[in-house]
């Protein structure tokens, strides 16, 4: 299915009736695919394949996928998601923001506060926003798991900054301005501490 889907160019779906029909079939596949992460939320392999499929759907089918995005994000933000999972979710949201800009305003108003809270929760209150913890030192060689955890958190921090940048530069800055004051303070404090 994925190989077949890769062969369609993004603008092609709008030009040929038979491809539009196949587009509807792919949307039905997306509906079914949404169930997989719900049933197997802890399966990294299935989750990665679902995200890859979702990225491809967004690029190929375009706005037709928008009605499925809230459910997809809800499925991806399951309670047991870890730092690596959050990075993937942020990548999906960044892709959506770049691709659909103004069409996403309502969705971003709901999703952005949740993402900010989840990201700060995953990084923890003691996280050093300067990035110093992301760079291993010679003494850290023995602490391999800690170094890897800090590296993943550093990647999440970069994805977070990318999310904020994409949100503002995609003409969704109004969404940021509508955020509750407490969330704005959290965002600004993370930016100021860099």
Written account of the structure:
The chain starts with a helix and ends with a helix. It has 194 residues and is mostly helical. The mean pLDDT is 82. Helix 2 (17-33) packs antiparallel against helix 4 (44-61) and helix 4 (44-61) runs parallel beside helix 6 (83-100). The chain has helices at 2-6, 17-33, 35-39, 44-61, 69-76, 83-100, 105-123, 144-177, 181-192. The chain contains nine helices and no strands.
Rg, rounded, reads 18 Å
The counted number of beta strands is 0
Mean pLDDT reading: 82
Category by helix and strand content:
mainly alpha
In helices, the fraction of residues equals: over 70%
Q: Note the main sheet.
A: none
Number of helices: 9
Q: Specify the overall morphology.
A: globular
Low-pLDDT residue spans = none
Strand content: under 5%
Cα-to-Cα separation, first versus last residue: 44 Å
H/E order of the elements? HHHHHHHHH
Features:
194 residues, mainly alpha, globular
Summarize the entry for a quick read:
By secondary structure, this protein is mostly helical. The protein contains nine helices and no strands. The longest helix is centred in the C-terminal third of the chain and has 34 residues, at 144-177.
